[in-house]
Amino acid sequence: MRLLRRGVIMVRSAVPPPDEREVLRALRVPHATRITDIDERGVREAITLALDRALAMTAFEGVFRTAETSEIREDEVVLREAPPGLLRSSVLAKRFAGAREVGLSVVTLGERWDEALDELARRGEPAEAWFLDALGTFFVDRAARMVEARIASDLARAGLARSARYRPGYEGYPIEAQGALCPFVEASRIGVTVNEAMSLWPRKSVTTVVSFVAREDGGALEDEGDPVVTEAKSS
Fold it and tell me: I need a labelling partner for 158 at 20 to 30 A (CA). Which of 60, 66, 194, 196 fits?
């Protein structure tokens, strides 16, 4: 049975429009189920404007590759054909126990989001800017999960299932890991770079690592947020 082909794969797609309940949860307005439920007129208008902007910018690009696990040490998950120390973390070693493959990805919503946020800052629209920034975080996370679903679909043909996901900057896995992860997946192909502080540019970009185990060993995916709702289309 054919494994996912080695090397970097590029994905282009768009995040499906969320319903208003999801939007409000992402904006930390859990008491409302619809935007019209919000009493404050100014907040309603700022959310509506931010959402209209966001829905016009749901396209994303991603790059990913998978690597076979060669060894799991106490403080590192060692991957074949990957630079030493890429997954050096005792937390990852524990979470990725039993992993046969690891998927590594970078996803971005692109520079349009930076331009839109900078424009709002220049215009002195802090409320709309805050809501748009939060929606960008929500959309890029959804995009990342869509790419993960694509990886999982490919590896399922080899009898592998997702077991855990993690990101640089989470506890025990330093943000500096992005400096090695981005070149490994050729993030420059989608215009993503890492600055001296190890932050990503464009700002609405994320890196993710996901472990895959033999299907009989796979349980529920260890996750910290919403499930994947759709799959990305390959470019």
Answer: 60
Rounded to 5 degrees, φ, ψ at 187 are -60, -20
- How far is Cα 5 from Cα 203, in angstroms, rounded to an integer? 30
Residue-number span of the structural domain to which 185 is assigned = 9-217
Comparing CA positions, the residue from 234, 104, 217 lying closest to residue 160 is 217
53 backbone dihedrals φ, ψ, rounded to 5°: -65, -45
- Cβ count near 2 (within 10 Å): 7
Residue 107 lies in a domain: yes
Q: Residue 202 falls within a domain, yes or no?
A: yes
Q: Using one digit for the tens of pLDDT, what is the confidence trace for 160-208?
A: 999 999 999 999 999 999 999 999 999 999 999 999 999 999 999 999 9
Residue 234 domain flag? no
What is the domain count for the chain? 1
Nearest to 147 by CA among 211, 56, 60, 19: 60
Nearest residue to 185 (alpha-carbon basis) of 226, 151, 158: 151
Cα dist from 195 to 76, 163, 206, 211, whole Å: 25, 31, 14, 27
57-78 pLDDT, tens digit per residue, is 999 999 999 999 999 999 999 9
Helix (H, G, I), strand (E, B) or coil at 22: helix
Cα gap 178→235, rounded to integer Å? 24
Q: What is the CATH number of the domain that holds 122?
A: 3.40.109.40
Question: In this structure, which amino acid lies at residue 47?
Answer: I
